Amino acid sequence: MKQMKKTNHYHALQEKLQNKTGKIGVIGLGYVGLPLAMEMVKGGFTLYGIDLDQRKVESLLGGKSYIQDVPDTAVADAVRSGQFIPTTDYRLIQELDAISICVPTPLNENQDPDTSYIKSVVSEIKKYLKKGTLIILESTTYPGTTEELIQLPLEEQGFTAGVDFFICFSPERVDPGNRSFNTYNTPKVIGGTTEACRELGVLLYSNVVKTVVPVSSTKVAEMSKLLENTFRSINIAFVNELAMMCDKMGIDVWEVIRAASTKPFGFMPFYPGPGIGGHCIPLDPMYLSWKAKEFRFYSKFIELAQSINDNMPEYVLHCAAQVLNIYAKSIRNSKVLILGMAYKPDIDDLRESPALEIYELFKDSGAKVQFYDPYATSFRDAQGNVVHSVKYDRCAFAGYDCMVLVTNHHSFDYEDLAHLGVPIIDTRNAFADIKSDNIYKLGTGISKNERKVKVYVGA
After folding, report:
1. What is the per-residue pLDDT across 301-318, written as a single tens digit (0 to 9) for each?
2. Which of 153, 201, 313, 350 could link 357 by a cystine bridge, Cβ 3.0 to 4.6 Å?
3. Global confidence as pTM
């Protein structure tokens, strides 16, 4: 890390952050940016939230939140106090003392990083940046992004990092719907391109989150986020493969995991499922794998894990076909109900949800497929059509040929569903405590099931 003499710009910004007179900007008011903005306001700063989506800005100005973890009252109080100013106007950058960039970083159709949102923000910052501004990137991306896409373009304009402006990377760790950990109490890793950059970044975030974890560089901070989620992706892939193995062997993988979890050391339980979802686990490993290839390093672990996880929706379809076969039915023309579309329980977030692909797979196989989700109530299918959730109706549900539990929302009446007489493919072990001949759990030997089929009300 570069060590430079502290400049007047450093001391001026330090004073503003210490006495909370500095104006802070958050660019991108989505799942990451809006919760961060609310914590900035709670920390005593005046916060300018910049987002190009006029509908989001109007919603916030009206005191309405579109993020489940941010209550309407928090937004309304922040706007009313004058501490939170939502806007679409990038020109306000020239008034800001610190900027946190929280824009999406998806993968393109070739599974390569799409950094276009970051580049777009940087092009606007270049127009309006004043000396002495702190810039912190939070968007998850590959090691080196902060230096390559933000520091170098600004230095090409004559600025010097650590002298005229300050730059850091602090990976977002948002977990939507988590009732225990939020933006405030989740430790915040941060690295700067110089010592002065890091010190100012630590100073800002120390005012708004409980714990700040400084690291030696932006690359270390960038890599730490990729390690967190690549670790999860690889372990989920392993247990998904184990579930398929147990299916072949007629062994209950869930019981196996419970037994292994009794070991008080050296074991960390992971659980199989219908695929991986959310903005992090499906994407972050591919960022790391892509960057590694620049150094002629090819990660077999990452590529294999991604392949296994990506193919789980197909395996769910295969399991459904086996279950329907037990009842002398085929997928084609069968009425199928998907239980849960969100990528995890008790939220409305559909980003990268495996349920979306499972829906398309059933549809392409000729099934008459619908879904029920009390949180994520609609989505656009592959053709761009809006698909809406059905209402909970136990009489109507009893008429389906099979159900597929993809998201284990706590609000589902599992006891009621289990006794409708409809076969259910349970991909999450959600029906673990319910005895029913109609439940077929992923990873328990569906292919070897020889149950005697009783009277089936859906027939």
Report:
1. 999 999 999 999 999 999
2. 313
3. 0.92
